[in-house]
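ugh ok fine here u go
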Amino acid sequence: MIYKRIGYCIHYDSVQRVTYMRLYHGSKSGIRGNIRPDLGRSMCDFGKGFYLGDLPDQPIGLIAGWENHKLYEMEFQAKGLQIKRFGNTYEEQLDWALFIAYNRNPQWYADRKKLCEKYESYHSGYDAVVGLIANDKMFQLLERFYEGTLCDRALIDGLSRVRLGNQYVLKTERACSAEHLQIISERTLTAAEKKSALAQSENKFRQMSGFIGELQTKYRRARDVRFLMKSWRSGIESWNEIISALASAICLENYLCLQMKRAMNRKHL
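structure:
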């Protein structure tokens, strides 16, 4: 069975397990020699690794301004690999956001040993990490959450609206080997593609700024929301403590609201 859409192709076996998929990689100067996971920058979304996307839009946007760029279409075989996938539950989306923060701003985790150990295990314990793409424009959204000016519900609402696709980051030589990754095609962008990609990138940046303001306004007085920094400052050490602290913040807020309502009702009796 094969599932297809424009720029996207996944193959399943007879019991609906993904066997291989068509992915895209953009290079500013072209791939030379063997594909390796240790040549990328460490301060990217999922740390150092070989990055691919399930849609061509993001790779095209990254390379459109570079003269010697190359766009690659690749076939990735996931069978037999250990893969960390970030799902769509609240906990998994929050985990995704904090993992990106760990990679992009590791100084935030300097005094949180348990969290460091957790996220280092994502680098050392898996052949690949898969999750939503968070480009530099979306990182505006994440920064507000990290700083404590955007609540958890606003963040998840924003993520559901910004559809950049998923990124596949290969962390080991095994995942990058010819057994699991094959180049299908290589090409340069047309003049029209480059012009369109650069225009879209600038437009998305302007849209994101207004979009964040809209989210902040929407959730400014919402109840049952959680702010990361309120828990962060309390010295939490582990992932379970983050969830517990945020949940406790909701319980406390609901309790205080209930007490205020009761006090007002007594006043009007």
